[in-house]
Structure formats: C-alpha cells, structure tokens
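REVIEWER CHECKLIST
Item 1: Sequence provided? yes
Item 2: Single chain? yes
Item 3: Sequence as submitted:
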Amino acid sequence: MMTPKLQQTLTFIQSYLREHGYAPTVAEIAKGIHIKSTGVAHRYITALADEGYLHLIPGKRRNIELTELSKAASNEENFSLPLLGRIAAGQPIEAIPGVESIDLARMLLGNDRYVLKVSGDSMIEEGIFDGDLVVCAHATRANNGEIVVALIDDEAATLKRFYHDQKGNVILQPANANHAAMEFPAQRVKIQGVMIGLLRIAA
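Item 4: Structure as written out by the authors:
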C-alpha cells in the first residue's frame, strides 16, 4: 500500500534522478525526506521495491532504478503545485515562504470524482457562485453539515448543505438569506455526491 511517507520517498527519488541522472544513496534519501535514520529510509526503499515501484541492483552503492510502474506514477507530479506561504485577504500579514506542495491529483482526481457547473445563487454565502465548478466524490450517504448533490424525486438535482432532523426528514439548507431551506421525507431524496472542492477560473 502506498502510504504518504512511501509516496514522499518515491517522489524524492524520481526528482533526484531527473536532476542528477543517477540514483540517490540511502543517506541522501533520508536527508531528502527529512528523517535521521538511514535504517528507516532503507525500509521505505525496500517497501517501494516490494510494491513494484523500484528495482534494486545488488552490489551497487547507487542501486535504485525506476520501474515502469513508478514512471507512470511520476506523472502525478504534474498535478502538484508548491504551497509558498500565506497571503492576507484582510489585514496585511508577513508573507512566510513555505516548503510544502499541494498534490492536486490526490485531492481532486480519481475514479469516484466528477465536476458540476453551478447554476444559481443559493450557495453564495459559502463562497460558491454561479458559474463555479464544484468537484464532488460519488456518494450515496452524507453526514450532517456536508455539502451534497441531492436528487429530489428522481427529477431535480441541487447543491445544498445536508441535514437530518429528529423526525428523520432531510433538510437541504441553502447558503443565501433569500432562499428558504427545503425539507423532504428521506425517501424523496437521494444523495449522489459530496462536494470536496471548488474550482474558479479568474476572469
């Protein structure tokens, strides 16, 4: 299983190979992923080899080769952007450089994801405006307070915040003071997805 630490190790190895043309040593990998133990780094390398992402050549100090599987996985890096710090939208704050990155592929892509274009103003107080694109994960259930794609009477779909009341009814709550909440018996509402992200292209 590809854990976050294994993914970090693989990403470092891929980046190092692209930059230098040869593989990093275990010590360089440990330093690159910010751990002190070369033993732990070696365990990550072995796990990646067991998963089929790396091929280890016996008898060589720089003994790591990428497999076709890891080369395919490296394409995901194209969907990562650096997180460089914070920026004020209210009072000015000091801009602090960061070293993190945001993996857009992990956040937004996948077989269970889809995108809908918003039509209307019922969710503007959540920052969701007409013409925005919402990224959703397929789901048939939702927790109270989640923003969902709800299908009503198998006819009309709407994006609203989801709640169950004490009577077992479903309440679909808009985020606009000019729109009233909608309440339905649970059997009239089918959850088709849960919103996980928002895309807006600047004009």
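Item 5: Key structural point noted by reviewer: Helices lie at 4-20, 26-32, 38-50, 68-73, 104-108.
Item 6: Recommendation: ____
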